[in-house]
């Protein structure tokens, strides 16, 4: 009998879902090799041949079985969100939401709901880089006692389009261009900006996409959003609107664009590795689930339509209540079986959660099952272990590809008497799902509601809410992306759109493109019918009543911890061992990680002749893979590092990407070889001459303390070259 995981982990049950998966989990440890039919294989090295020099015989069923299985090992990748990674965890509720929803897992604070979460990029294919400028998918499957609830969200709270019918166009535009399949995992190309420049409704989302939110430091450090307005339904059948949020406990942090591009080369698996290692190291990523609840009576109180997925509900207008915490505590056992085969669907809801008429959400309700039918090959994908609910499934659906369940009895229809009427329909008291009885009294019509016609107010609100460095990054991102567009009219059209958001934004991007901002003109939304009146847009320019919303900027995020941050310590033979010890101890105490990097791998000898193990050499390491750098002293070590161009490059790059750098006072020789040597303090006693985030100090206790504070601050953006951006 193959040894299942159950054998070694049963007393250590993490969740009912993990227990459920155990029956399908298998280890080969200590086992004999067999065919798929259980036949023990004696020789897996040689095919069956007529003589030792061939030819190979058709009879060789072992060869054929092995090759045939191999030939069929691939399934179509997801049409969007193909590149992703996932983890198991649990959700724990802080307080009951019984007054607004009857969903069991949001009522009972004693229950722990198992979850499986998949993070992804959107545009790239399975093998593309993690650090593409892109939206990140944030899909959570809750295995509740009432069936699976999937919260299939993104790390940005709004979307590009208002109606599902535009989704294939959007995705065709952003994916690599069809004639030459270039570029991979990038929006910086003609077809994307052609489409966007004709879709003013995308403007708000484009602001998010050009912001640093699109290049997160880690999946563990990004927010998640349900995007659409959903409904909560309580026991009395009353409905409230709800927006879902995930708030990461480590704060929201990003990398620099130049850094992102470098990471894509040095470690395209950067986010995947980061999540995996954090979980393996027991530094379990955590998010709080937040809800914004809006009574039905307030549906029309806002200056935007709650059904419009290009709008968010500012937290200043409706505060986010944090109602529970999700902890990711276990990596999958098998990427394909779990991460690749997991099938999310916005239509997987439980009683107490329902949909609104958001036209994007309505289209999604069709798409997700449809796509799994192709991707997973048939209608029984719910039986795949990772997709299986933790509560039993009983219905009259039968057969189909790869059916696992053996349904006994001859009845597979309803109503029936031969099967005793089973399975019975569930009454509301038994937890039977009923759709919210929303009153609809309308003409059937192919039309966009006028309440969806304001495309700029929240784009402007977003821009106004950013700090200066964040605004600079947005300008740079537009200039980069449009700079990759060859067709002049597309660039000009985009500048026209940007001028509707903010004049200074448009003029700064224009300057970088060597263009003038076109005369303000209302962009025409090509998604109105051919005979529609584009001038209608003119009348619905709305000015947001909020000047700014702090929650939209990342500057105010949590900066009080260096937990799980990774610090590079640059050393060579002759390093001062006491410095290394003091720093590594202090970092470890704060939950940070570190790696010792030297001109060669193996070990180095410290100044007092102690062997110190090295993690990486300058050949394998890169500053972009670290959050901060420390250079300990020691005469010979300092001399070697100064003579090592890769070491100087490492420090220069960390400086360029605005990272904290700490150095012992006797390392000046190394620091003076950097391009920022002019910024170095001339007098170490005069702290005022120190550049922020650049800490040079001879007292190791003071150094470690200041460094830890600097690492927690994440980045020192003012270090980027000064720009003159009018407010
Ligand atoms: Fe998706 N989306 N989507 N989407 N989506 C898919 O389903 C689709 C949208 C999101 O890790 C697909 O299983 C349409 C918004 C995530 O497995 C597909 C529309 C949001 C994931 C699909 C949208 C999302 C997907 C592709 C417009 C944020 C990855 C593979 C009407 C709220 C889930 C698959 C995972 C995946 C369709 C818009 C999030 C084709 C038609 C808005 C996180 O069904």
UniProtKB/TrEMBL annotation:
It is an enzyme of class 1 (oxidoreductase). Its cofactor is heme. Residues 1-29 are annotated as: Disordered. Residues 34-422 form the Catalase core domain. Keywords: Heme, Hydrogen peroxide, Iron, Metal-binding, Oxidoreductase, Peroxidase. GO terms for cellular component: cytosol. GO terms for biological process: hydrogen peroxide catabolic process; response to oxidative stress. Its EC number is 1.11.1.6. Residues 1-20 have a biased composition (Basic and acidic residues). Pfam families: Catalase, Catalase-rel, Catalase_C. InterPro entries: Catalase, Catalase_AS, Catalase_clade2, Catalase_core, Catalase_haem_BS, Catalase_immune_responsive, Catalase_large_C. One of its GO terms (molecular function) is catalase activity. It catalyses: 2 H2O2 = O2 + 2 H2O. PANTHER family: CATALASE (PTHR42821), CATALASE-B (PTHR42821:SF1). Decomposes hydrogen peroxide into water and oxygen; serves to protect cells from the toxic effects of hydrogen peroxide. Belongs to the catalase family. HPII subfamily. This is Catalase. It comes from Pinibacter aurantiacus. The lineage of its organism: Bacteria, Pseudomonadati, Bacteroidota, Chitinophagia, Chitinophagales.
